[in-house]
Design a protein that fits this description.
Elements (H helix, E strand, L loop, with lengths): L3 E4 L2 E4 L4 E7 L8 E7 L6 E6 L6 E3 L7 E6 L4 E6 L8 E9 L2 E4 L3 E6 L1
Parallel strand pairs: 2-11
Antiparallel strand pairs: 1-3, 3-8, 4-5, 4-9, 5-6, 7-8, 9-10, 9-11
Length: 116
């Protein structure tokens, strides 16, 4: 069982930046593809960004391209989501996701609120 703990959320003004972190309990963190998802009130959870286990390839949903950057540090068992030029529509609970083979794990979620 992999435990994922998100941190770094909070309240920020539009145009500001935040960096989310996702610390994993798994020593074989380097085997896991990582992703960030978000869920706004009244909406379904949506994919935001993903990174392969080696960190060599990343993908983003169109609405965050050029503003968000996903990364992972396999030595620290941590994944990151650097968010810049934040917009009110980025307000949501952000979830960290880890995938390896048939296994998938989720963090508890962290609130990000962007004020206009």
């Amino acid at each position: 069982q992999v435990q994922l703990v998100e941190s770094g959320g909070g309240l920020v003004q539009a145009g500001g930046s935040l960096r989310l972190s996702c610390a994993a309990s798994e020593r074989t963190f380097s085997d896991y593809n990582m992703g960030w998802f978000r869920q706004a009130p009244g909406k379904q959870r949506e994919f935001v960004a993903g990174i392969t286990r080696s960190g060599g390839s990343t993908t983003y949903t169109d609405s965050v391209k050029g503003r968000f950057t996903i990364s992972k540090d396999n030595d620290k068992n941590t994944a990151y989501l650097q968010m810049s030029s934040l917009k009110p529509e980025d307000t949501a609970v952000y979830y960290c996701n880890a995938r390896h083979s048939v296994y998938e794990y989720w963090g508890q979620g962290i609130q990000v609120t962007v004020s206009s």
